[in-house]
Structure formats: C-alpha cells, structure tokens
Amino acid sequence: MKILFVTSEFADFAKAGGLADVAAALPRALRAQGVDARVLLPGFQKVIDELDVLTLVGTLPRRAGIGPCLLGEAKTRDGLPLYVVLDPSLYQREGNAYAGPDGQDWPDNDLRFARLSLAAEQIADGKAGLAWKPDLVHANDWPTGLAPAFLKWENSTVPSIMTVHNLAYQGLFPEDRRGQLGIPDEAFTLDGVEFYGQISLVKAGLSYADHITAVSPTYAREITEPEHGAGLEGLIAGKAREGGLTGILNGLGGDWDPRHDPHLAQPFDAQDTAGKAVMKERVRTSLCLAPAEGPLFGVVSRLVHQKGMDLVAEVASAIVERGGQIAILGVGDAETEDRLREAVRYNRDHVAMLNGFNEPMAHRIMAASDFYLTPSRFEPCGLSQMHAQRYGALPVAHATGGLVDTITDGETGFLFPDFSVESFLSAIDRAFAVHADPPALERMRAAAMRRSFDWADSAEEYIKLYARLTGKPLLRLAGTGGARAGATTADLRAASCMDRP
C-alpha cells in the first residue's frame, strides 16, 4: 500500500501549528505498520537548509498559471521518504509557511499551494517521471485542498482523502484567480469550489475528495453542524450521510514522557510522582511565584480567542482567592495577551506569564502543574490536554471536539459543558475539591498518566480506511525507486527552478 501524504507543514523542518506534528508523526506510524507512506511538501528555505542530500528526480509540468518546476527526493535522518516541490520563486522566502516576516499572508498563497496540490496530482498520475506512484493521495487542510480537485478534473483513478485539522482556516481567494489556478469554469459552482462568490480551497478538497476525515470523532460530528461548520456544514453533512466522513483521533509523540524527559530535574511516572513536587517548586521559583500549599494551574497554549484564554483571564482572581496559582506560557494576539497581563498585575505573586514559547519550560510547566486549563471555544483535536494527562496535570476543559474524546470527566480530568465563566468555575471548584482529597487526586493522576494516545492506534484506523478506498490489502514495504542521479542541496540553493515563458 503506497500513500502520498501532502502537507504544507512538517515538524522536522517547518512548523506553524499542529498540522506539522501530525505530518511528521502519522506517516512514520504508517510505515511502522508496513505502509509505504511518503510525504510531499514545499521546498521552503528551512526545508532545503535542513536536508543533508536532496536529489532531483522529476519535472512537474505547467497547468494554466501554475508554472513548471522541479521535484526533489530526500529522506529524514530516520529514513522517512520525502518529495520536495522545488520552486524558489514561490517557497524560498523569509517568514513562515504562510506569511512574511511582517506577519502578513503572502498575497500569492493561492498559487503557492496550488503548485503543491498540482504536484500531488502529477505524481499520482505518473506525470513527474517517477517509478513510484501512490495508491492514494492524503491531503490536509486548505493548502492542499486542490489536490483532490485536480485528481477529479484530470479523471484520475487514484482516490483521495481530505483531512480537516481546523475548518476555521478555509483558504479564500478572489474569483478572478480561477484562470491562474487552472480551475475549470464548471467547477466554480455551489457543488464545486465557489463559496459566497470566492474560491475556497478547503471546499475544493471537501467537495472532490473520495472521503473526509477529521482529527477527532467529536469534531467530525461538530463540523456537520452550523456552530462549527463554518458555512460548509451542509456539504460535510451530505458526505456524512453517504458514509464519507470519519473522525480519527490524532496521536501523541514519544518526546513528551515524564519518565525520561531531559527538561525535568527529576523524572517521574504514574507509580512515583515525587518528581512533580520537585518541579512545582522549581517552576514557582523560576516564575517568581510566592511559596504556596495550594494547587498550581498550568497553561501552555497559543494565547488567542479560539483557545478561550479570555476565560482564563476572567477566572484568574477567583483561582487565587481559592488558594491556587497559575503559570502561563504562550504567545498570541495583542488583545488576549493584554487581558492576561492585567490578570498578572492584579494577582502579582500568584499568576505569572512568560510571553513567547520555550520548549523546556513548556515541559516543566506541564510537569509542575496539578491541573491544566484548556477552555477552548472549539478544539478539533488538541495535543496539550494529552501532554497534560501524560504528565499528571489533570485538564479542566470545555467539552468540545477532541477534548471530549481524550478526557474522561471525573477520572482523568474535568469537563465543563457551557462556554461561560460560571461553567468554567464550577469545573475549577471540582478540581479544588479533588486537590483537598490526596487519595482522590492520586487516583485521578495515575489514571490520567496511564492513558495511551499512541499514533499506532491512529495509523491502524487510517490503514483500514485506505484499504477500503483503494481496494488493496496491506502488504509489506517493497523496495523504493524513482531516484535518479542529481544535484545536492548545495547545488539547488544556487539554482533557479526553471526558466519560465
């Protein structure tokens, strides 16, 4: 079984959000179970800089205003095969995958990711000059939404899956870009890529993919409803009625494990959690929090509206009045950060915030915390609540999306039903009650730390879906092919992709 996993992000080289973690973990988990999974990603400067050897293996032809370019092949240090779309004019820029150093989206993002999506179709249909062809194309979120569409428009026999990681990001562009992107006139309809007079790249993927997956079972249901469907709930619900929608929970990588975490002063596990007390004192000291006997509530998050950080700011004083403290690590929008800073100023010595992201401190706050605040307005899957449970920090979470699927209320954490201060505080009070009962706290903590969020389980579910869509059984990995002698990474840095007419 051969799978081409198409992504705009990849955690080894270019990360902007959770998609990067999934793109790095799921293909590896698939390969561990015998699937020949390979990753297709853009040739960002960070990608090219990090690769030891990048070999030119194919040429990708033009379609409309999407120019021709080269295709490179490489491997990660642990052997995961990569295909890299090489177009310096589109990808080798300062900034992240989607925006420049000023934080503004690149104005040609539609063309940049149409090139990536078209590369997927060209590889699948044997137009790239490779000996390897996938049995299925697995697209992810709006940047790869045109991949299923190009496959359908080219009458390809290769099926596709579109995974929704966060439907709030849709990839909307002006209607007059249709010609540049090679979108047929007949596709700019309600049943195609049109969305309120614009081109929607995520709708392209949802409309033309053979199957849709979402990153948790609850989120799969939520996106069929108006509150979370972002205007596409009718389309998705229709697919669901036809059996074309599946929720598959994301997994958790092995780099978050308190038993052998290099960032912790004292490792610990479910049987011996003494290391948590050590870490709590160290984190309190490093954040200049006052000595205290009450619980420590942790936050490691993007400080944005979606994550419900305004609720954290509103309940901060109530937590302090009850004898608790809060340690916050993250970066986000200015308004949310300002509200949290105000809470810090008002509760000096008991609420602390590190503005930015620091990987070692993220691990330490998780390890130190008794409870973890995650009041997200919506959460397609979420990883932090899984990290928290693995580190014995019981989540206090809004009952939405993947939070529902990963937290057992009253056993491994606390769920609150309504997105409101009152509902949130009710769950926080339940946490305080458990903290006042040490045997109950230890029981919940041990249950949380025993939870398994293994990527192998997720991979197994995807393999079943791949087999159903392709009609092919899982066979062991065979030898790979398609590589031809070519340039090294250093050569490519100096080379132009291809002369354009």
Task: Describe the SSE topology.
Blueprint: E1 2-6, H1 18-32, E2 36-42, H2 45-50, E3 55-60, E4 69-75, E5 81-86, H3 88-91, H4 109-124, E6 136-140, H5 146-153, E7 160-164, E8 172-174, H6 178-181, E9 194-195, E10 198-200, H7 201-208, E11 211-214, H8 217-222, H9 226-229, H10 233-241, E12 245-247, H11 274-286, E13 296-300, H12 309-321, E14 325-330, H13 334-346, E15 351-355, H14 359-368, E16 371-374, H15 384-390, E17 394-398, H16 401-406, E18 414-416, H17 421-435, H18 438-449, H19 455-470, H20 489-494
Parallel strand pairs: 1-2, 1-6, 2-5, 6-7, 7-11, 11-12, 13-14, 13-16, 14-15, 16-17, 17-18
Antiparallel strand pairs: 3-4, 4-5, 8-10, 9-10
Helix pairs in contact: 1-19, 4-5, 5-7, 11-14, 12-13, 12-17
Report the major sheet: 9 strands, mixed
| CATH topology name of the largest domain | Rossmann fold
Structural class category: alpha/beta
Name of the CATH class of the largest domain? Alpha Beta
Question: Mind telling me the C-alpha Rg?
Answer: 24 Å
Shape: globular
**What percentage of the residues does DSSP assign to strands (E)?**
15-25%
Unreliable segments of 5+ consecutive residues:
478-501
CATH homologous superfamily classification of the largest domain: Glycogen Phosphorylase B
| Count of folded domains | 2
Strands, count: 18
Distance between the termini: 39 Å
User: CATH architecture of the largest domain, please?
Assistant: 3-Layer(aba) Sandwich
Helix content: 25-40%
* Major β-sheet strand ordering: 3-4-5-2-1-6-7-11-12
Q: Residue-averaged pLDDT, rounded?
A: 92
